[in-house]
Amino acid sequence: FWQLEPWLPGVANFNADPSDARLRNAMTVLAQWHEAAARFEPRESEATWFKSFAAANSPTVADRLDRIERFRDHDVAKLRQLLQQSTHLPPWGAEFSELVDLSRRILDLFQLSAERVAEDLLSYRDLRLRLHPCLRDVWRTAKCGGCPNAKRSWPG
Length: 156
Known about the structure:
By secondary structure, the chain is mainly alpha-helical. It is built from four helices and two strands, in the order αβααβα. The protein starts with 19 loop residues before the first helix and ends in a 12-residue tail after the last helix.
């Protein structure tokens, strides 16, 4: 479950007009937000989606382990099967075989590394950490710049 909040109007344009001062201001605001989130005491009705814990297992570690298992056990075989099919759709043309080769290589690399990554994550699965809400994917929003659906994530 994700709680989505509306952003302020505007466009993320840091890449179009970067400066040390803007970056410093943005990082200061981001740090202040995370510090405030760590101290925030939610009402009981809000606690399931916006609560800090003195010590708890990381939900992200469990999520990543589930994703690796699901992709390894179900999705890889399905994708490989789809990659064996051919298409003559006009948008792909000659580049289709290059895309298929690249896709196969990505799946090969996933299969080579998935077990090691899962083992690394397993070593953290039972580790209890201080948890508090955080913002994710701030950089992606900021780098999108002129994307029509981009939301403002930088001050100023």
